[in-house]
Write a structure and sequence with these properties.
The chain has 118 residues and is an all-alpha fold. It is built from three helices and no strands. The chain has a domain at 1-36. The longest helix is centred in the middle third of the chain and has 75 residues, at 40-114.
């Protein structure tokens, strides 16, 4: 008797699932009737229109997302030579000032060496 109970135990759950599936099918049938969907071609058309709209909006979003990165890249390409030129000018100015300081230090050393010791 236990084997028979074990065998029939899933049957109520199966019946419940079949009834739920039947309810879902009836709901879809009412929905399709309300939308004027009578065949698979109408269903495909009805589903593909929103999907096309979603895809186009997604593509536009991706395109807009890439534009700031491309603009930043272009900005960096334009700005990089300016930074390089500025760095070269700064180095030249520092070299010039370093040379002046070295020259002044040398002149000071010469002047100190020529002056009598106090």
């Amino acid at each position: 008797m236990d084997k028979l109970n074990d065998f029939t135990r899933p049957v109520p759950k199966l019946i419940e699932l079949i009834l739920a599936q039947k309810k879902a099918a009836e709901y879809l049938q009412r929905l399709f009737s309300a939308e004027g969907i009578n065949d698979s071609l109408a269903l495909t058309s009805r589903v593909s229109e929103p999907m096309t709209l979603v895809q186009s909006r997604y593509d536009a979003m991706l395109a807009n997302r890439r534009n700031p990165f491309e603009a930043m890249s272009d900005y960096n390409v334009d700005l990089s030579p300016l930074f390089q030129e500025s760095r070269v000018q700064l180095k030249a100015e520092l070299d010039k000032r370093t040379a002046l300081i070295c020259e002044a230090t040398s002149l000071l050393d010469v002047a100190l060496s020529l002056s009598p010791s106090i």
